[in-house]
């Protein structure tokens, strides 16, 4: 009983599921962007049919975990998420959705699950991200975080969008957002993935989404990483195109269709 309680509390801390559906046939696990919490993607639960249960991953240093130290590297993040989700993911088919930083985490978690447990999402939905072995990803790894001034980080966050301007009026929130963004970027820089010759890590289908006004991402290189089907969609808007209600409807409907057509 104590072990179960510990597991449940650990799961609730790391994985947020406000719309629980114990009878759902599939699970969709969402991975938020750099500096982000669970508030937006966890709410997707109410947009899906009863056959899909939606959860969102919460990293340390934000929301109810604000007092916890930030993760130091991608391996720590992957291990914590895997520990919290493993039992659930062994029970029924699951898919991942990640946006930007969240796409890279979802990829790293999927890779770990496949290599260590022989488990694989039946579909990876990736948004606003390069393939992690492409040359386009390299500049992200070489940005000097410690040399970047707070005002430059804030300017970049404002250009990307996705953060309500009223939140940036609060000094406390602004400082914490800058710190969280820095720490998430630091974690991202520790993602190490070398594509081995002739080794295709996944067999699942992959769908890549991008905003039409966002910078272009090297999504073609995802072809190298799965033997499954790959499709690409461009939706109107910038980096945070997915927060537009019309795009959110498209995404949730499209993901539902992919899940229900998977024939599992």
From TrEMBL:
Residue ranges of domain Thioesterase in the record: 27-248
Substrates-to-products reaction catalysed:
(9Z)-octadecenoyl-[ACP] + H2O = (9Z)-octadecenoate + holo-[ACP] + H(+)
Broadest EC class?
A: hydrolase
One Pfam family hit: Thioesterase
Q: Could you tell me the EC number(s) of this protein?
A: 3.1.2.14
**Presence of the UniProt keyword Thylakoid in the record:** no
Q: Where is the signal peptide?
A: 1-16
One GO biological process term: medium-chain fatty acid biosynthetic process
Question: The organism sits in which domain of life?
Answer: Eukaryota
Q: Which UniProt keywords apply?
A: Fatty acid biosynthesis, Fatty acid metabolism, Hydrolase, Lipid biosynthesis, Lipid metabolism, Signal
Q: Name one GO molecular function term.
A: fatty acyl-[ACP] hydrolase activity
Checking InterPro entries in the record gives:
AB_hydrolase_fold (IPR029058), TEII (IPR012223), Thioesterase (IPR001031)
Q: Which family does it belong to?
A: Belongs to the thioesterase family.
The name under which this protein is listed is S-acyl fatty acid synthase thioesterase, medium chain
Organism lineage: Eukaryota, Metazoa, Chordata, Craniata, Vertebrata
What gene, per UniProt, encodes this protein? Sast
């Amino acid at each position: 009983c104590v072990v179960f309680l510990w597991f449940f509390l650990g799961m609730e801390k790391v994985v947020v599921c406000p719309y629980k559906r114990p009878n759902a046939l599939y699970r969709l696990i969402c991975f938020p962007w750099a500096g982000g919490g669970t508030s937006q993607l966890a709410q997707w639960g109410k947009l899906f049919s009863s056959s899909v249960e939606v959860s969102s991953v919460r990293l340390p240093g934000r929301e109810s975990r604000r007092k916890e130290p930030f993760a130091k590297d991608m391996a720590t993040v992957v291990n914590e998420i895997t520990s919290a989700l493993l039992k659930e993911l062994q029970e029924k088919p699951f898919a991942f959705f990640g946006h930007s930083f969240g796409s890279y985490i979802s990829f790293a978690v999927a890779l770990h699950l496949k290599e260590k447990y022989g488990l694989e999402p039946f579909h990876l939905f990736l948004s606003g991200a390069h393939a992690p072995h492409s040359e386009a990803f390299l500049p992200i790894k070489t940005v000097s975080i410690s040399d970047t001034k707070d005002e430059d980080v804030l300017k970049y966050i404002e250009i990307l969008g996705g953060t309500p301007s009223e939140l940036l009026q609060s000094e406390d929130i602004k400082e914490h957002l800058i710190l969280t963004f820095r720490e998430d970027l630091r974690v991202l820089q520790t993602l190490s993935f070398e594509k081995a010759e002739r080794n295709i890590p996944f067999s699942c289908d992959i769908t890549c989404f991008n905003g039409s006004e966002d910078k272009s991402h090297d999504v073609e290189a995802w072809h190298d990483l799965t033997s499954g089907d790959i499709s690409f969609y461009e939706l109107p808007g910038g980096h945070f195109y997915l927060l537009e209600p019309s795009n959110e409807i498209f995404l949730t409907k499209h993901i539902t269709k992919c899940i229900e057509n998977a024939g599992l």
